[in-house]
């Protein structure tokens, strides 16, 4: 069963009950090492109490791992940022929720990193999030906030330089992102989602297809990346610019439904839509991409008007609904 929620941070998501929210990936806590050891005792009640203490401690540590993303030494908490960065959408930028995510990884992880996937080559660049000294040791002193801020600025600066050099194929972007680092990890997709190439071309799919049906077809054709173990966040869905007309609300809703269904069919642990605000800047890409037709929303007229306009039916109802 999937549950859809909207959080105060601006993230709307569907997840399986019991799954951790997006954020730094936590390693399974070693309760036996962290919990106090119970002394051997022939008293059955004492032994039972000791077992209850161990069980409770393990539960609390597991919840802490979900909430704050504490990592053990040697593990990597990775966030992969992949932007489509085409001429028909705003330039890549972090939303307020995306910035909070990276900040949380940098603050709580001993080895937090961001991988930024180049939209032109598909190759990832590794940037540190955890504040470190010049000798490579984690900074826990007074310079920690300054170093963390500098790390976040480098991520933002790198994103602003990204520009597409080819077709708008979000499925291909997801595949490239999944290859940047092994799962479990978090994938932050910066894209309008108005894909016009590859297995999911919205000019061919249209706005009336059922999301689950589209995802099943893609899965049967072997066109979905393997996202098992990934937390996937879509940021900027429906935000267009350039020659691509703005999407009316029904098309924005349909678009989110498409990509959430595709995300789940690809096996992701959790799929989110980030609706928090982000800076909108002109795209740096000069490569033209096709335009997806969008039905015009025409105003209705009251009973005293001679001319009446109607809203196209496909803006209000999906196929076979």
Explain the layout of strands and helices.
Layout: E1 3-6, E2 11-15, H1 31-34, H2 44-68, E3 77-83, H3 96-108, E4 112-117, E5 124-128, H4 144-160, H5 170-178, E6 185-190, H6 202-205, H7 211-220, E7 230-235, H8 249-265, E8 270-274
Parallel strand pairs: 3-4, 3-6, 6-7, 7-8
Antiparallel strand pairs: 1-2, 2-8, 4-5
Helix pairs in contact: 7-8
The total beta strand count reads 8
Kindly report the average pLDDT value.
Answer: 80
Shape: globular
Specify the helix fraction band. 25-40%
| Secondary-structure-derived class | alpha/beta
Order of helices and strands: EEHHEHEEHHEHHEHE
Assembly state of the chains shown: single chain
Q: What low-confidence regions span 5 or more consecutive residues with pLDDT below 50? A: 1-9, 16-74, 315-321
Structural description of this entry:
The protein is built from eight helices and eight strands. It has 321 residues and is α/β, with parallel strands linked by helices. It has an eight-stranded mixed sheet, sandwiched between helices. A hairpin with a 6-residue loop joins β4 and β5. α7 runs parallel beside α8. The longest helix has 25 residues. The N terminus and C terminus are likely disordered.
């Amino acid at each position: 069963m999937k549950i859809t929620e909207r959080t105060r941070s601006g993230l709307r998501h569907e997840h399986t009950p019991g799954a951790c929210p997006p954020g730094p990936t936590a390693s399974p806590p070693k309760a036996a090492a962290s919990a106090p050891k119970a002394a051997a005792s022939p008293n059955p009640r004492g032994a039972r109490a000791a077992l209850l203490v161990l069980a409770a401690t393990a539960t609390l540590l597991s919840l802490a791992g979900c909430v704050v993303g504490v990592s053990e030494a040697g593990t990597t908490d990775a966030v992969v940022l992949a932007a489509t960065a085409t001429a028909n959408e705003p330039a890549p930028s972090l939303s307020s929720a995306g910035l909070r995510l990276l900040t949380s990884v940098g603050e709580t992880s001993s080895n937090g990193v961001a991988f930024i996937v180049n939209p032109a080559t598909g190759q990832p660049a590794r940037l540190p999030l955890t504040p470190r000294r010049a000798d490579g040791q984690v900074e826990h002193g007074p310079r920690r906030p300054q170093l963390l801020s500098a790390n976040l600025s480098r991520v933002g600066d790198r994103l602003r330089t990204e520009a597409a050099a080819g077709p708008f194929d979000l499925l291909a972007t997801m595949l490239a992102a999944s290859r940047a680092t092994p799962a479990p990890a978090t994938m932050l997709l910066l894209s309008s989602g108005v894909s016009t190439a590859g297995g999911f071309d919205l000019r061919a799919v249209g706005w009336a297809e059922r999301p689950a049906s589209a995802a099943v077809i893609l899965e049967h054709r072997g066109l979905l990346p393997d996202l098992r173990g990934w937390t996937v966040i879509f940021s900027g869905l429906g935000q267009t610019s350039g020659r691509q007309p703005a999407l009316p609300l029904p098309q924005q809703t349909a678009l989110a439904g498409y990509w959430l269904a595709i995300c789940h069919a690809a096996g992701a642990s959790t799929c989110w839509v980030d609706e928090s605000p982000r800076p909108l800047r002109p795209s740096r890409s000069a490569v033209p991409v096709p335009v997806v037709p969008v039905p015009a929303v025409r105003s209705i007229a009251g009973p005293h008007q001679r001319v009446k306009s109607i809203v196209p039916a496909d803006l209000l109802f999906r196929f076979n609904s």
